[in-house]
Amino acid sequence: MSLDGRPGDRLEGPLPVTGNGVVLEDSNRPALAPMSSQRLRLIPNKDHNPDNYDDMELDFSPSIFTSLERFLPPSMLGMPRHDKVKFMTEILLKYLPHGERNRVQKHRDYRQKIISNYQVENFEKWVNEAKFRIMRPNTMNKYGAVLDDFGLETMLDKLMENFIRPISKVFFAEVGGSTLDSHHGFVVEYGEDRDADLGFHVDDSEVTLNVCLGKQFSGGELFFRGTRCDKHVNSGSHSEEIFDYSHVPGCAVLHRGRHRHGARATTSGHRINLLLWCRSSVFREMKKYQKDFSSWCGECLREKKERQCISIRATKRELLRREGESTA
Ligand SMILES: [Zn+2]
Question: What's the gap in Å between 293 CA and the centre of ligand 1?
């Protein structure tokens, strides 16, 4: 579908067109105007197949960029993603109220701070130079270090108490989220000369915080496949349990430790993640006396529903039988 000549497609013009969604700062630019003076289309280009922005560090959700891309001026569609992101971010920022704009900027700064404040690399260098014997973080990772062993225990405890516990109390109450009382904190490294991927597993935690500290990498996606109790840890997954997540430096994932997951191979570059396994002694004690975990185990829940179905069917049959007897 060609939209040539529509106001929304014009790259220049005497007046900004209202209702177009974009107001131009200076509309009297020459034909080869810089990107910032180009306009969005009025009607999206439905034939255009937009890029995927999931792996980029963005100020807005990647899906917003994918959707907005269909409204880009035709000349921009073939541009590198980075240029398109720059243009679309400018537009999105222009339309945010002031408070919101500050929030986006603050988020951006905060992400950067998270990445630069955790001087993991220097830390590991120091460990190697000092010929410290690093305790490896878990049975599955060869590279990385336990942070609690290097004076970060108190800081991580505070992180758990002040941030993770309040959030987990709301989202993961059924696995002891409100009573988290100990942790195991470590960093893991992936990429060239490091671990490549991490097999499918559950964590020895009630709630896990996984922060991506950088740097430049591709691959390394997390794949989640449903939460399971000890008994059902090896059962199959259901289609609605399939969830994949791409890491963004400075962003974190919080999930149940029993949420089965793995990390795909980091195919290039170098990825560092901070893991904080949070545990609840109360939950672990109570678990010993429990048999039904249908409040959080996908398989226990499925079995419970199946039992209910069978019992309902049996009751129905019994009622029909009685009805048949009484009318006979
Ligand atoms: Zn179960």
Answer: 5
CA distance 24 to 98: 19
**Residue 255 alpha carbon to ligand 1 centre in Å:** 17
CATH of the domain at 170: 2.60.120.620
Instruction: Give distance in angstroms: CA of 223 to centre of ligand 1.
Output: 20
Q: What is the pLDDT of residues 204-258, one digit of tens each?
A: 999 999 999 877 888 889 999 999 999 998 998 889 999 999 998 888 999 999 9
- Per the structure, how many domains does the chain have? 2
The rounded Å distance from CA 225 to ligand 1 centre is 14
Q: What is the CA radius of gyration of the chain?
A: 27
* 260 and 203, same domain (yes or no): yes
Asked if 254 and 207 count as a contact pair (C-beta separation under 8 A), the reply is yes
Whole-prediction pTM: 0.60
Give me ligand 1 centre to Cα 256, in Å: 14
Based on the domain organization, do 87 and 186 belong to the same domain?
Answer: no
Q: How far is the CA of 111 from the centre of ligand 1 (A)?
A: 37
Residues 211 and 263 occupy one common structural domain = yes
Domain-located, residue 204:
yes
- Structural domain of 212: 126-287
Three-point CA angle 282, 173, 107, nearest 5°: 120
In a domain, 313, yes or no: no
Q: How far is the CA of 287 from the centre of ligand 1 (A)?
A: 12
Instruction: Output the six-digit token pair for 7.
Output: 């106001």
pLDDT at 229: 93
